[in-house]
Write a structure and sequence with these properties.
Strand content: 25-35%
Shape: globular
Radius of gyration: 16 Å
Number of strands: 6
Distance between the termini: 53 Å
CATH architecture: Sandwich
Order of helices and strands: HHEEEEEEHH
Largest sheet: 6 strands, antiparallel
Number of domains: 1
CATH topology: Jelly Rolls
CATH superfamily: Jelly Rolls
Mean pLDDT: 89
Number of helices: 4
Low-confidence stretches: none
CATH class: Mainly Beta
Length: 152
């Protein structure tokens, strides 16, 4: 697991974390792979994980009456998912794999428990979650503007 510790410690989202917190993260982590054309999760499903994408691409889609709308494409180095951190722990969109993807999956239940016990860790994750939410909000705004421009 030392390699995983190094990988996480070098990632911009985690580089400010103390080594003890990196060790806590590693304790909640596992390697996963996703095949193209599969879904990591779908809207409404229970959210109990988040992912650090090592290789590949995953598209976030929202459902509309005319079909799915792509709002963000995540790739190597990106972090997928924030719904695991806050009730009601449900995904608000679909995550569709567009090419073979490998990632590090983090168990949300494990991390929520650790964040409750250690408020400093919880604060660090709150900052990370807010950053992820802001990025997704900005991507969604851009997509809404693109759709609106096409209609006019």
């Amino acid at each position: 697991m030392e390699n995983l510790s190094r990988i996480l410690a070098e990632h911009p989202a985690f580089k400010e974390l103390e080594s003890q917190y990196i060790a806590l993260l590693v304790g909640c982590a596992s390697n996963v792979r996703f095949n193209p054309e599969t879904f990591v999760f779908m809207e409404g499903m229970e959210a109990n994980q988040f992912y650090f994408i090592r290789r590949g691409k995953i598209v976030l889609e929202i459902n509309s009456p005319t079909g799915p709308i792509e709002v963000q494409t995540l790739k190597e180095g990106d972090i997928l998912g924030w719904a695991w951190f806050s009730p009601p722990y449900r995904w608000y969109c679909d995550a569709h794999v567009t090419e073979s993807t490998s990632a590090i999956a983090f168990d949300g239940n494990c991390l929520r428990t650790k964040c409750e016990k250690d408020k400093k860790l919880g604060y660090e994750f709150m900052k990370l979650i807010l950053l992820l939410m802001a990025q997704e909000f900005e991507s969604t705004q851009i997509k809404i503007l693109e759709v609106a421009m096409k209609e006019h």
